[in-house]
Structures are given as structure tokens and as C-alpha cells.
Amino acid sequence: MGVLLYYPTVRPPTEVVHQALLYWDGLASVVPRDPRVHDALVGAELRRLEERALYRPLAFTPESLDVLHGTGPRAGQNWSVLERELRRLAARPDPPRPTSPPEAVLYTSKITYGLEQLLLELGLAARLVPRRLRAELSVAKEVQSLVVGVLARELAATTDLALFPYTDSAEAYRHSLRPVYPTRSLAWEMELGRLLPVPAPDTATEDVLAFRERYADERRRLMRALHRMLGDLRRDYEHPADVFAQLRGELAEAMEDYRAARRGSRMAWVHRSVTVSVALAAAAGGALLLPDLGWLLGTVGGYALNVATREIRPLVRARADHDFSYLHRVQSGLV
Fold it and tell me: Would you place residue 183 in the very low, low, confident or very high pLDDT band (cuts 50, 70, 90)?
């Protein structure tokens, strides 16, 4: 089912951890390359999940950071995004300056030396005092979400894992997809929160793990049906209603089986807003797919599925199998 890649920080909120345990093969997050910093940031719960092979710490390698200055038709577009947006932030009347104590921290092993120098030059970052091997920069959350959001999506495309970028930061989600002229492409955007409920707040992670094991077949059936629909929508972008009609029965059955599993769990469940962006095939375009159009795709399990189009930035190293990004609005209930 793939691995949920959480960003922009190392430790996701408990609700996102539970989402990963229920609907994905596991959870990953971007950690600094320095193992001493990594161990301090991961925390006890993620270490326990790592022991069960349910959490994977990932680091930006020099190769994955090459997307900032690579070669090819879209070479340097991520650097263009970062530099332009950082200069725009710095030129604002109220630029997001670093604070003490820091509002957010950016680890230099997550970025390139050139980007570190640009942040310092623009006054958007400051080295923490006392310095610890120059490993940390104090930045505003807005700056952190911009930098890590742009890179996380590329990291997902440079590993052998099936990684799905996933964030609870609307800013990071927006920055990771922001298009840059002339390299723009189209994507579907859908709200899936009704299909993917999570246990109510204060549910113990051990209870979620027990549900994960007991109802493994029901969970996998739901996510496979959902990702099959998203994948087919990506490829057959000119006939979304036909794609949905062909898979509606499979998805409805999977939802009903999962609903029965939830009833048997004796846990309380809630619906949160979960938005997915699905990059369309490179040839998509024309009158049928204009940006900012939206319509009702159909209903399944008593829930309406709406789809909209938007412009996004194509990946430098695009993968043929998927290019999905998720935004989870923690504590944002659906009524």
C-alpha cells in the first residue's frame, strides 16, 4: 500500500501516526543525517514503531539534494522555486525572521550549503547559539515548510520505496506543489476524509496496532481499491466518470467491509479532512482539463466524491507509477 512520508518535521502528530498505521504499510519522516541529532528527535514512540518495522527514518542524500541544481529539461526548477519564494518572503514588510527561542528549526544536513548561505544572507535564518557543529538554523515555520515541502516531494521520487508525501501543514503542501512557469502540469485534487476515518483523540496506539493486525485484509482491500481508482484517474484523465463507474462497486464493497470492521473494534472514530493531489499524465491538457474546474465525480457508500483540477509543478525525476501528495487537517472534522 506504500509508505506515508510525513513532513515538514520529524515527529508527526498522533493522529497522523494512526492514519499511517491504518492505511499504509508504514510511516517515514525526513531526519537529519547526523545520528546524534536523529536519535534525539525521533522520540520513544517512533523508535518502538521502528523496532516493529513500521517506521523508517529517511535522510536527504547528496544525490537527492542534486534536484536543486541538476540537469535536464526541468533542471534547477526546485532551486528556482525556493530562491524566488525566499526572496519574496524576505522582501515583505513583515518578513518571517528567526526568533530566539526558535519558532522552528532547519537542520543543515537537510539542505545544500548554497541554500543555507542564501537563508542567512536574506536574514531568514540564524545559527543557534551555542552552535552545535553548525547543524541547526533558527527559522520561522513558514520558511521551514517552504524548504522541506519542496524537497520532500522530490525525495519520494528518488528512493526504491513507494513513498507518498503527507503533511498536516497547509503551507508545506502548497509550497511542495507550487508551479513555476513554464514547467506546469495538471492534477486532480480530491477530498478523501470520508473514506479514511481515524480513531478518536486519546485512542492508544497499541489499540490501533491491534486493529491493524486483526483487520489487515479489510484495510488493504480499501486502500487498494482507492489507489486503483486514483491511478486509473491519473492515466485515463479524459474519462473520469467512466473510471469511477467501473470501480465504484469494488470501492463500495471495500468501504462496507471496513465499516463492519470499525463497528467490531469498539473504538470511537472521527472523520478528518484528507486532500489528495494526483498528478496527471504529461499529455493532459486542453479544453477538457482547465485549471480550477470542479465537479461531482459520484457517490459511494453514501458519500459524495468531488474532484477538481489544479496546476502543480512536475517532478524533476518523475516516477511512472505515481505522483500523489496528501494534506491531513488534524482536528478539522467533517460534518
Answer: low
What is the rounded (10 degree) CA torsion for 45, 46, 47, 49?
90
Residues, the chain:
335
DSSP annotation of 323? -
Which SS3 state, helix, strand or coil, does residue 151 take?
helix
Residue 335 has pLDDT above 50, yes or no: no
- Whether cis (ω within 30° of 0) applies to the bond prior to 130 is yes
261 burial (CB, 10 Å; 0-12 / 13-18 / 19+) is: middle
- Report the alpha-carbon distance of residue 15 to residue 8 in Å, rounded: 16
Nearest to 108 by CA among 188, 37, 6: 37
First to last CA, the chain: 28
Q: Exposed/middle/buried for 320, CB within 10 Å: 0-12, 13-18, 19+?
A: exposed
Confidence of residue 134 (pLDDT cuts 50, 70, 90): low
Peptide bond into 8 cis (omega under 30): yes
Average model confidence (pLDDT) across the chain: 82
Give the residues across from 104 on adjacent strands: 139
Report the alpha-carbon distance of residue 194 to residue 53 in Å, rounded: 28
Q: Is the peptide bond before 182 cis (omega within 30 degrees of 0)?
A: yes
Cβ density class 241-256: b for 16+ within 10 Å, e for less: eebbeebbebbeebbe
Q: Residue 1: which residues within 8 A CB-CB, separation 6 or more?
A: 23, 24, 25, 220, 223, 224, 227
Provide the sign of the torsion angle of the four alpha carbons 156, 157, 159, 164, taken in this order.
positive
